[in-house]
Each structure stands twice: as structure tokens, then as C-alpha cells.
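Please go through this protein, sequence plus C-alpha cells, and consider how the sequence yields the C-alpha cells. Keep your notes short.
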Amino acid sequence: MRLDLVGLIEKVDTTFFARNNARQRWGWVGYGLTILALIFLVFTFFSDQLNLQVINLRTIWPTILISLSIYLFSLLVQFIVWARLISFHGKITWKDVEIYSRMIMMRRIPGGPWHWLGRSAMYRTSTELPLRVPLLGSMVEWILMFIVCGALFIFSLERIQSWMSFLLISVLFIISMGIAISWQPKQRPILNRAIESGGWILLYLLAWISSYLIFSILLNGIGVTNIGWREELRIWTLSAGIGMLFVLFPATFGIVEASLATLLQQYINPPLAVLVAIAIRLIYTIADAMWGILGWVFSKYLFNHFEISNQKPPLSEQ
């Protein structure tokens, strides 16, 4: 059954955007959202939205640098899965890296899944992919990541019995495998589809573990040492899962940070809990801005370089 969001955007595409200059109009949407993301990032840094005055940057900079490296690894892992998701519908090029990098910046825009719309607009403008492919691919990506997050949250619960935890995680694994297998072409052997689906889930697991490590390293960097690793994992996956749920609705700004501060108050005093939440927001804002812009510039240069190289005639014809 087709999701309403896909049907709505495809209806817009077949009416307004399907007229003359359809690609140009979708290009306006993509670049408009990219510019909006850049404006919002600049506003966030220079309007004191990050409350930098409450953070001792001298003590937290080593933590930020380590976190940026871990976050880059997480982004690369997630991009591998995304590239495989759409590879069944078109060839992967540096243009996909450019689109993914711009999408990273769009995730900072509050108010709902703007990065889904921006990503779809960019693919509609610069590739031959049907609009439904990046839209549905984004939804599959979100569902798989949410399921893996839920599995980690169940694993972190100490009060639940082992057999119940194993059963619930197994059910989530089967659901995620079914979704991943169904996305792939039916012409592929079922064993190949199952192996690849398991690989996607494993990579998303690595991405979530990476994000947990950032949270854990930050806690230790600030001086919070009285929380066990299972409690850290439970707090992080629950707050991040809540943030993922609310990304489908408007006014999502600060949901993860508010959830994080609330959950941390069970273990540390409220001012310190708020400090951790602000620091997490700072790290992810810097990471999305830095890796998004660098990835965009680097991939665009390489894409243009290879495009020019491919357009050159052979030496025999020169």
C-alpha cells in the first residue's frame, strides 16, 4: 500500500512540476532547502542558540574532536546502506555523495522531514530516478534505523528477563529482515537478498553503537562517571528513538535534547543534565555542518572532474 506522503508528493510532481522545466523547479526546492539549512546553521552558531556560555570549551574540545571522527564513521556506514538501497534503481556516482552531504545539513532544519523532501528533490533534478525511489528509500532507511534503535533499547533493559529480551529482539530482527528483503528486486536469489539485508542491519547497528560511544565519551569528558554502560545505552536509545518518532511531525526542534536532559536527571543534578544535552546538540550541529559542507564541496568537485574527463574525446579523435 502506497504511503500518503509518497502519493501526495507524486501528485504534486505530476501536476505542477510535470509541466515545463520540471527539473528546474525541483532544483529550486533542493537548493532552497540547502540554503535554508545553511542559514539555520549560521543562525544557530551566531545567535547563541547552543548556549555556549554554559560550556567550558577548553575542556570539551578533545571530546568534540573524537566525537567528530566517530560521527564521520557513522555517516559513512549509513551512506553505504543508502547507496545499496538505491543501487537497484540506478548507478551510484559522486552525485549521490553530494546529495547525501546536502541532506545531512537539511537534518538540522526543524519542523519535520525536510531532508526527505530535499533529498527527493535533488534526485528528481539530477538523476533519472523516479520520485518514489528516494522517498520510499528514505522511509525504509528510517524504519530500519528505528527498529535497530528499539532492539538496542530492549537489550539495555536490565529488569527484563533474558528470554523475553531475546524474543523481542528476534521479532524486531525478523521484521527488519522482511522489510529489507522486500525492497530488493525479486529476481535476486533469496539467499543473496537475505545476506545483504543482514549486512544492512549490521551496519545500522554499528551506526547506533557509534552514536552511543559519542554520548558515553561526552559523559566521561564532562565528569559524569556514576552511570553504567547499560544505563547510558538505555538513556541514549530512548531519547534518540523519541527524536526519530517526532521527526515525522512539525516543531521537532530540541526533542532529543529535552528527552535526554529529563532521563539524565535520574542520575545527575538538573543543571548538569541540561549541560550534557546542550553539549550533545553542539557536537551534532558542528558535525552536520562540517561533514555536510566538506562532503558537498568535495563530491561536487570530483563529480565535475569526472564529468569533464568522461566528455573528453579519445586522443585518436583530438
In short: The first helix runs from residue 4 to 15. The mean pLDDT is 81. Residues 9 and 67 are 36 Å apart (CA to CA). The chain is about 75% helix and 0% strand.
